[in-house]
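User: I'm writing a short methods note and want a consistent example. For Glycogen debranching N-terminal domain-containing protein, I'll paste the sequence; you return only the structure tokens, no commentary, since I'll be parsing the reply automatically.
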Amino acid sequence: MAKANPSDHHVEATTSLVDRTLRTLKHGDLFAVFAKDGDCRGGDDGPDGLFYKDTRFLSGLELRLGGSTPLLLSSVLLDDNAALIVDQTNPDLEEEGEPWLAGDRLFIGRMKFLRNSTAYERIVVRRFEIVDRSIPLEIRFAADFADLFEVRGDVRPRRGTSSAERLDERSVRISYLGLDEVRRNTTLYFDPAPAALSADSARWDLDLSDVERCTILVKVQCSIGEALSPEPPHLVSAYRLLRKGMEDRLDRVSSSNERFDVVLGRSASDIGMLLTETESGLYPYAGVPWYSTVFGRDGIITAMMLLWIAPEIARGVLRTLASSQATAIDPSADAEPGKILHEMRGGEMALLGEVPFHRYYGTIDATPLFIMLAGMYLKRTGDLETVRGIWPSIAAALAWIDSKTRLHPDGFLAYSRMAESGLANQGWKDSFDAIFHADGRLAEGAIALCEVQAYVFAARNGAAEVADALGRSAQAEQLRHQAETLRGRFEEQFWDEELGSYVLALDGEGEPCRVLASNAGHALFAGIAGTERAERVSKLLTSRRFYSGWGIRTIASGEARYNPMSYHNGSIWPHDNALIALGFSRYGHKAAAVKIFEGLVGAAFYDELYRLPELFCGFSRRPKRGPTSYPVACSPQAWAAAAPYALIAAATGLDIDHARDGVECSTPVLPPLLNVLHLQGVELNGSTFDLRFTKHGKEDAAHVSKVRTG
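Assistant:
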């Protein structure tokens, strides 16, 4: 198997995220990865820690009671992801070989949550029998200020300098001055003041002889810059403000299947946690731990899948990406005027240029997808004000696409990186070995991907609708003509009769990559495929070579680089499957869409948290066991969390059109696991609808159960 190309900045798989059960929390630009017991053990042991703006501000936090690690009783994330609750008890405690407290006599309850730039923890120690001596409770802590790319596996020859100081009897500050001349600070506050406090530990001597319980509060504040930040608010106030700011945007779907409702509830909570308020509006950060930042492609596709239920997310995505659109040529960032952002990073390595992702534009599909989303958003909402505001960005994106397609001999949109530090592959399958020929050779030159041409087709048609709404009828006509011309060329050069599918890509010499790949399903999602060919693709993608029982593999089994444990060459991605399901539904292949629905939801049923991860391995489904995890998959991941909502739209044929003032459900088909599906509060033109889908024998029906106006 080919080795990874180090310039691709891939996630090293030296430590598996499934070795241990991890718990994740996020609020704004702050996220945390804890072990199941609530401690974090970063460094060589994994990605644990408290991260703020792509830097680990806390790499170690370990609780000791009586000199020993407490025994875990339970560990749960609240259903809305607001807090982590950990229950523990004491082991047998000894001193110099002599027991002095039997196990299970003390209960330790821990609650952890994040708000703004601070992690909070409440530790309650409760006794269930008299303890006639003080009990030492110790917290050991450390901050390595590792850049996220270091945590992912990059090795730096030089780093900045760290220092630590005790500020007073209840607080400690650890500081790091990076090579970028930026100071990053971790300040820990303890209440009550510890009996002993140093630069790496705090100790209390708990006296439970006259009281039943003792409570310790911990605040870990992250800050950047020389100016000292004020102490964060008290834990009770912070938690009240956190809960007050949480909004259930997606918690409006219920069904006859309680387990499916749990999957939807987890998806809603994960999306709510990943949504981040930017200067331009809400944006779904891509995923924890590796991608907790703005990603263009991920945010757009997440917004597309949630458009029917939460269009305000699309508005924030469009405005954010319009505000960060490239305006100049920068080879190191793969930037050209009009391109939409791929990835934005704020860590030391990005600021120094050690990785190219401070503002990186090395993606071929985010730009047409941005235009596509704008057209879909206008159709869904009729929000002409927002679309008019971003029209200059839409026009710049169209101009960039035109400039690139004019350079291609067949008018296709192709990519090649501008600098060796950039990503070699710039579609959603961006591993260095993801685009290859039937004999396994890697594709070279300017590569035109199958799905990207489909996105360009849909983008031009979507932009035409926007142009019409803005009174630009001549431009709209030209855009539709461009789209139809592209459709003809696409069908001629990407369809392979022998494969019975669209080829994966054309390389720089125009040679087709005759590989059976899930990319072909995106041609159905975008609507570029001919009717007869769409039917053949639908049957192919649901055949045994592609469909594992859990979902559609990225590459069909038997292809040259097929490996069910690879990142992009045989694994199963929920977002990929959801988009394909929408494509199947678009062409009327509801049984195929429902097959994906059943597989993905079945996979979520096997997850401890009923959560769909970023991806999982593509091994065939086996009786009485769940899917095989991928070792470094993000969980939660925004577009995976959004996938169940796309599956609902695919199964019901839901289409909401502001201009027609209508909600259409074309041939709804519920999967076997559902007898009833209830969608509440679907908004359109100032009114809300409740839609109820029920199974009646071999036919399913849709009913509008309630309409509220105003």
